[in-house]
């Protein structure tokens, strides 16, 4: 197999997830850009040399996990498939392509059967939200979702995390710091993230929504409504913000269920019994999900479940998950495990 982007924030976690996985891996090729060719990364205690990614890097590869920029995926993923590899891509490059399944294995693994070589890993904030909502949808039906995210800086890559740390130190020392990465590396302006909240993730698009917000809307529908990114079976709207947290996103989710007899205890039970979710919901003992406790874990943590006092069938929940693991590296490796189990690890 190959890991493309093996030196990045997600790529380094992918290596760890592959080490811990059930996959029968013969060898792993570590790929990145020319910049880091020749550097070493560790895999199962062994030092492996990072190579520059070229089309020929994929000769003899059965499975390629990509975590690079969208333009790099667009260039190399089809080359990998041409050479017989199944690609699991972590960027938004192919997510809305009707021929590309967008998969969270616990929610829609059946969609894997339709793959033609490329499988897309959803956006991190979408993954943890559908993980929290799917058991509720299965039990009570779901008609509307309103989400506000509080996202960690590592979602914007290693440079963004470094910027938050340097900026925090500079701010405490009363020194000047000129941000160059956040909120969006390629955008016109950069703002201080340390001790601040930025209501912008990714660039602005139509109707005043950011690309991240549109991703949450369309990806949630594609995953939960049988592949239809424009379905109106579930209404979804989102506000995405970045908070000064290194790892693990939090989300405040307000939702309407179809079954108006749904109860908080029933929702708790559904979440408790869903693979990959952990219920942390005990207000009397101040138990609720928090980013610092979720970092390094593969699960989605759910709590603060409570009813809207004025609208029957409407509820709030709070969910937290490691954006680099279930939100990215672990979900990708888990897709690979499902493909293997379903005998679909071939083009
Ligand atoms: P490199 O370390 O050589 O720049 P992050 O999300 O943390 O910014 O990481 C991005 C990952 O994508 C890194 O591993 C980076 O490698 C890799 N990458 C960036 N550009 C390319 C490219 N043109 N070809 C292959 N890998 C790339």
TrEMBL record:
The keyword Ribosomal protein does not apply. NADP(+) binds at residues 7-10, 35-36, 154-155, 323. Substrate binds at residues 151, 242. Pathway: Amino-acid biosynthesis; L-threonine biosynthesis; L-threonine from L-aspartate: step 2/5; Amino-acid biosynthesis; L-methionine biosynthesis via de novo pathway; L-homoserine from L-aspartate: step 2/3; Amino-acid biosynthesis; L-lysine biosynthesis via DAP pathway; (S)-tetrahydrodipicolinate from L-aspartate: step 2/4. InterPro entries: Asp_semialdehyde_DH, Asp_semialdehyde_DH_beta, NAD(P)-bd_dom_sf, Semialdehyde_DH_NAD-bd, Semialdhyde_DH_dimer_dom. The active site is at residues 124, 249. It catalyses: L-aspartate 4-semialdehyde + phosphate + NADP(+) = 4-phospho-L-aspartate + NADPH + H(+). It comes from the Bacteria. Coiled coil: none annotated. Keywords: Amino-acid biosynthesis, Diaminopimelate biosynthesis, Lysine biosynthesis, Methionine biosynthesis, NADP, Oxidoreductase, Threonine biosynthesis. SMART domains: Semialdhyde_dh. HAMAP family: ASADH (MF_02121). NCBIfam families: asd_B, PRK14874.1. Belongs to the aspartate-semialdehyde dehydrogenase family. Catalyzes the NADPH-dependent formation of L-aspartate-semialdehyde (L-ASA) by the reductive dephosphorylation of L-aspartyl-4-phosphate. This is Aspartate-semialdehyde dehydrogenase. It comes from Paucilactobacillus hokkaidonensis.
